Amino acid sequence: MLLAASLGLTLLPSEAGAFCRSRTCRGAECTRDADGCPVDGLPLYWPTGCVGFSFQKDLSGKLDPDLTRTVLRRAFLSWTQLPCPTGTASLTFSENDDTACNASGYDDKGPNVNVILFRDDDFPYRDEDNTLAKTTVTFDSKTGAILDADIEINSAFNEVTLTNNRVVYDLESIMAHEVGHFIGIAHTPVPEATMYASYETGQTSLRSLDQDDIDAVCAIYPPEREVKCDPTPKGGQQVCGAEAEEADEGCVLGRGRPSLLTAVMLCAAALALAGRKARRDTRRTC
């Protein structure tokens, strides 16, 4: 199923704008400009016009599964069919079959899956109680082409919500931000943008893209880009069965040629906001 949506007219995007692109440099290795954008290495991008993704079949045991799917799809939709000055951005998404894979990873010698999964029981990364999600992107360091991307939602240490009735950590907002990383966008210094680095309890504004976010997509995926639509993951669609899960090898991160393939954790420190007595809780989005 291809996902698409329509938004209003936009202004001319510019590489000199405030938005930041993810690049092949990593962490402290990256030189940054005045806006905090990495400038070393090559910018990341998907080489296809339609990117496939799969939901981990169990989703979250804490959330209604049907509504969860609807919300996740809306987050992807917000980044599609974006109008640029010369036409529509050359990026859409395709929802592939659900997967049993319950780990983030990439196998350069076999099939893969761009998985969206929830961590209900544990979030095995640093600052687990202050991080809402993590996106892991694997790319070709010689070209910047994205080979694989996975999104993990920290539902173990955060109360993730789906509706407007009672908003705590809004799943649609969190996912909209992570999809930005999924397609090669880094954190921006623009506070109104979906790709800003922090999230406040009860916030839903990240559901809707800011002009800064749209400019980023138009720069990375311009309408004139000549690409085919192939939502198949690199190496084919991964099927994680019982044997793979028992061996804990259903999805393996960083296996293979380290000189060619690099996995990057797209995380950055959130800006420090109010102190302990503040009414608003600010969490990090990676």
Structure at a glance:
This protein has 286 residues and is of the alpha/beta class. Helix content is 14%, strand content 19%.
Element layout with pairings:
Elements lengths: L1 E2 L16 E2 L28 E6 L9 H13 L5 E2 L2 E2 L3 E4 L19 E4 L14 E8 L5 E8 L6 E2 L7 E2 H12 L2 E2 L11 E3 L10 H10 L21 H6 L13 E5 L16 E3 L2
Parallel strand pairs: 3-6, 3-7, 7-9, 10-11
Antiparallel strand pairs: 1-6, 2-12, 4-5, 8-9, 8-14, 13-15
What would you note in describing this structure?
The chain is an alpha/beta fold and 286 residues long. It has a single domain (2-284), classed as Collagenase (Catalytic Domain) (3-Layer(aba) Sandwich). Helix content is 14%, strand content 19%. The protein has helices at residues 65-77, 171-182, 211-220, 242-247, and strands spanning 2-3, 20-21, 50-55, 83-84, 87-88, 92-95, 115-118, 133-140, 146-153, 160-161, 169-170, 185-186, 198-200, 261-265, 282-284. The strands form 5 sheets. A 7-stranded mixed β-sheet has the order 1-6-3-7-9-8-14. It has a two-stranded antiparallel ribbon with strand order 2-12. Helix 1 (65-77) crosses helix 2. The longest helix is centred in the first third of the chain and has 13 residues, at 65-77. It is globular. The model is unreliable at 1-16 and 241-284 (pLDDT under 50).
How many β-strand runs? 15
Provide the CATH top-level class.
Answer: Alpha Beta
Structural class: alpha/beta
Mean of residue pLDDT values: 80
Question: Total number of helical segments?
Answer: 4
Number of domains: 1
Radius of gyration: 18 Å
Q: What's the order of the H and E elements?
A: EEEHEEEEEEEEHEEHHEE
In helices, the fraction of residues equals 10-25%
- 3D shape: globular
Task: Classify the beta-strand content into a percent band.
Answer: 15-25%
| CATH architectural name | 3-Layer(aba) Sandwich
Q: Would you identify the CATH H-level superfamily?
A: Collagenase (Catalytic Domain)
Predict the CATH topology. Collagenase (Catalytic Domain)
Tell me the span between the first and last alpha carbons: 27 Å
List low-pLDDT spans.
Answer: 1-16, 241-284
Largest sheet: 7 strands, mixed
